[in-house]
Each structure stands twice: as C-alpha cells, then as structure tokens.
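Appendix C reproduces, verbatim, an entry submitted by the partner laboratory led by Prof. M.T., so that reviewers can inspect both the input and the predicted structure.
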Amino acid sequence: MSRMPSLVQAGLLACSLATSPAAAQVAGGDLSGPPPAPAMQPQQRPQAQRFIERFRAANTTGDGRLTLAQAQAGHMPMIVRHFDAIDAQHKGYVTLQDIQAYRQQMHAARESGDRSTN
C-alpha cells in the first residue's frame, strides 16, 4: 500500500504534465480519428511518458477513450479503482483530460485539507 501514493501521483502527474492532443480533441469535440501522438516535452518526466504509453496501450481502440474493461485489461489499477470518480460525467470511458481533472481535484482537496489542519 505504501507504493500506492507514488503510483497514483506518477499517473496523475503524467496527465498534468502532458498536454495531450487526445485531450484537446475531446475538449474540442473532434473525435473523427485516433489522436496523434504528442511530442514529448523537454520538461516532461519519464514517469509521465510511461503513463501516457500505458494509457495508449490499454486503449486498444485508439480513440483516446479508456473504458473500465480496457483499464482492467491494461493493468491500470489506479484508473480501475477510481474509474467512477474520474468518469464524473458517467460517459462509460475516461480520457487523459478526465484523469487530469480528477488529479487536479484530488490535489486541491489535499491542499485544502492540509491548510485546515495548520
């Protein structure tokens, strides 16, 4: 269990560091084809790139949308465990943008919790 926070942070950090064309497509509504591969940013951490690669590998349809079954088959336990919370709009899939939004919410909640205890 001690590895869980670091894995969650790594996965969620990946989403916050990677401005993905897939996320831009979803935000813009352009889902006509598979998202192009994002260029790795110089400041992007290897953890972030690995998370994106794992997301893409699990996304067997190549549409930038990860279903619960794909997350399970792709061995993405953080996504599986928090799928319902990440899929806040109950679409039946999550995107890198959804994961990033979830990560930001969790970070904000932690920050406000830390401030209330000081």
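Residues 1-5, 14-32 have pLDDT under 50 and may be disordered. Additional entries are available on request from the coordinating office.
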